[in-house]
Design a protein that fits this description.
Layout (H helix, E strand, L loop, with lengths): L13 E3 L2 E5 L5 H10 L12 H15 L8 E7 L2 E12 L4 E8 L7 H22 L4 E7 L3 H9 L3 E12 L2 E11 L6
Parallel strand pairs: 5-6
Antiparallel strand pairs: 1-2, 2-3, 3-4, 4-5, 6-8, 7-8
Helix pairs in contact: 3-4
Length: 192
């Protein structure tokens, strides 16, 4: 799986300076599991993942995506100087409507430096715009973010994502309800 490519993409690897995205690699599955478990409060994940869970997920869900003409998600390993520092991609893809939701998770050790997070999330967003609009010919990208993440939301908005809606008390976490914010980016925004 580490040399896999997505049948739906014409370009598999994107580079910018020392950063690269490429189809999700099997060798990154343990790191991804650890990041997901540590950052459950910002994810749609309601229990700690095990190594067995992660192995089954990569075998039964991720591996088949590479050969599908219209996969429901396209995930990438996000590298800095050839070391995986995060992962994400397009999820909840609706091919008929030419849209996908951006998913992104960064290494736990890189979260505390806001400037680094801003830079790396912005680079990842640029990668997703290229994949979605240039390769897949999509019209729309969107995100759902819990309102407990003001810095993350600021990075989205600084990268042209517009707040489109607020789902009040949409998520129950840590004994409290919180809102989910929907941000969108249309292909036409790239020319503005």
């Amino acid at each position: 799986m580490d040399n896999s490519s997505y049948a739906c993409l014409t370009k598999q690897v994107y580079n910018f300076d020392d950063y690269t995205i490429l189809p999700l690699r099997l060798i990154d599955k343990q790191d991804i599991m650890n990041w997901r478990n540590a950052q459950m409060d910002v994810l749609r994940q309601n229990r700690v993942l095990t190594i067995e869970d992660q192995s089954k997920y990569f075998t039964n869900v991720i591996a088949p995506l590479f050969t599908q003409e219209f996969p429901q998600q396209i995930l990438f390993s996000f590298l800095y100087k050839n070391v995986c520092i995060g992962y994400g991609g397009l999820v909840h893809i609706t091919w008929a409507d030419k849209r996908g939701e951006i998913s992104f998770l960064l290494d736990n050790n890189r979260l505390s430096d806001n400037e680094q997070y801003r830079k790396e999330f912005s680079i990842f967003l640029d990668f997703m715009k290229k994949v979605a609009f240039d390769d897949l010919k999509f019209n729309r990208l969107f995100t759902e973010t819990y309102d407990i993440r003001p810095f993350h939301i600021g990075v989205l908005e600084n990268n042209g994502f517009l707040l489109e809606g607020r789902m009040k008390q949409h998520i129950f976490m840590n004994g409290n309800f919180c809102d989910s914010l929907i941000h969108g980016f249309l292909k036409e925004y790239r020319n503005v």
